[in-house]
Amino acid sequence: MRSRFALATTLGLWLTGCQNHAALQASMAVDESLINTYWKLLTVNDDPVVAADNVREAHIVLHIDNSARLAGATGCNTLSGRYQHTRQQLTFHPIVTTKMTCPAALMHIEKAMLSALYQTTHWKIYGERLVLFNDKGEPLAGLRAVHLY
Questions:
Q1: How many beta carbons lie within 10 A of that of residue 73, not counting itself?
Q2: Kind plus residue range of the DSSP H or E element containing 120
Q3: Which of 15, 43, 44, 113 sees the fewest Cβ atoms within 10 Å?
Q4: CB burial class (10 A; 0-12, 13-18, 19+) of residue 129?
Q5: Radius of gyration of the chain measured on its C-alpha atoms
């Protein structure tokens, strides 16, 4: 009877240790880089964004080459432009897109995404998640880092 109790206690402590180790590793996750990361759009104005079949998913990449260049897609059209980044501040302009017509749902996402980008004043990264905020501190869009290689 004692050996069963000892075994159960040992197993319980071991499992608790594993859970604590996993939680510790998750809390120590390194934040992704804002620059040169493929950021997939997950939410805009608290609405989930679902990629349509056979359409490029909504995303942005902030390049830093000879200039601060924005590239990406809205889920319908491609986008490009410029951004300005200083510490936690971030603004986008001008932004241009191609002018393809898409189904209404994709056009709605595009309009919301572009509006969110234009209203962005600052950002915060939480591990692999990027949140764009307006000047009132309200979240505009949520994105997730996607590694392409």
A1: 21
A2: none
A3: 15
A4: middle
A5: 21
